[in-house]
Amino acid sequence: MALRQAVDWSLYVVTDAGLSRGRSHVAVIEAAITGGATVVQYREKHAPTRQMVAEAQVLRELTRRTGVPLIVNDRLDVALAVDADGVHLGQDDMPAALARRLIGPDKILGISASTLAEALQAVQDGADYLGVGPIFATPTKPDAAPPIGIDGLRLIRQHVSLPIVAIGGINATNAAEVMAAGPDGIAVVSAVVAAEDIAVAAQELRAMVNASRQRR
Ligand code: TZP
Ligand code: MG
Fold first, then answer.
1. Which parts of the sequence bind Mg(2+) (predicted)?
2. Would you say 150 and 178 are in contact if contact means Cβ atoms under 8 Å apart?
3. pLDDT of 151-191, one tens digit each?
4. Tens digit of each residue's pLDDT (9 = 90 or more) over 66-102
5. What tens digit of pLDDT does each residue of 9-21 get?
6. Does 93 belong to an annotated binding site?
7. Which of 4, 107, 141, 157 is catalytic?
């Protein structure tokens, strides 16, 4: 079975150098995996390419050792260079259909969608999973589309059978409510990366996702 069909999407943790209180990406992600992160995304908007490759390479070694899929945000070239498991692209990035041609059939292709039309297009273009959001307003991504709320998530879930991770403003206070709308998991930045105890924060969210899936 191809990796992309076998991924556990429960707790998808996204890096953010600006939120991690001076801790390195590798320290943050190691603690997140200890707490139960099931997917890791390397997301870096500002660093020089050389630095990105170096950081992604270190995360590649860690995620390979721990058996957690690594996805690179935005940068298909960096994803391929470090042999990441996949790439995640937004609506202003490389079009999904072209990205699929470039990465081939075996790498994971994730696409951000905030409307049903975007979601359906991504499915058609060969996405393996969707990042749906922002569910709630979030300071982490100031240029994000307007929040779509739980109802927006539910609508997309009703029409799309691909794996969906919900993203945007998700934390321990609202994760259960988000999961009740039917995504396969939650994607978080600040709720884990900015936490004082990263492993405990990840563990708490993972437990909430597991509990909500058991109720289905
Ligand atoms: N895409 C949509 S919202 C968002 C991204 C990358 C940021 C989510 O960050 P947080 O801190 O989990 O709200
Ligand atoms: Mg992007």
1. 74, 93
2. yes
3. 999 999 999 999 999 999 999 999 999 999 999 999 999 99
4. 999 999 999 999 999 999 999 999 999 999 999 999 9
5. 999 999 999 999 9
6. yes
7. 141
Instruction: Decide if 141 is catalytic.
Output: yes
Alpha helices in the chain (DSSP H): 3-6, 25-35, 49-66, 76-81, 96-103, 116-124, 149-159, 175-179, 190-193, 198-214
What's the rounded Cα separation, in Å, for the pair 133 and 11? 15
As a whole number of angstroms, the distance between CA 65 and CA 76 comes to 22
Helix (H, G, I), strand (E, B) or coil at 178: helix
Q: Which of 93, 167, 170, 198 to mutate to test the pocket of ligand 1 (most atoms within 8 A of CB)?
A: 167
Residues ≥6 apart with Cβ < 8 Å to 137: 147, 168, 169
Minimum-distance ligand to the CA of 175?
A: 1
Indicate the SS3 state at residue 39: strand
Ligand nearest to the CA of 167: 1
Give the β-pairing of 164-167 and 86-89.
unpaired
Name beta bridge partners: 72: 42, 87
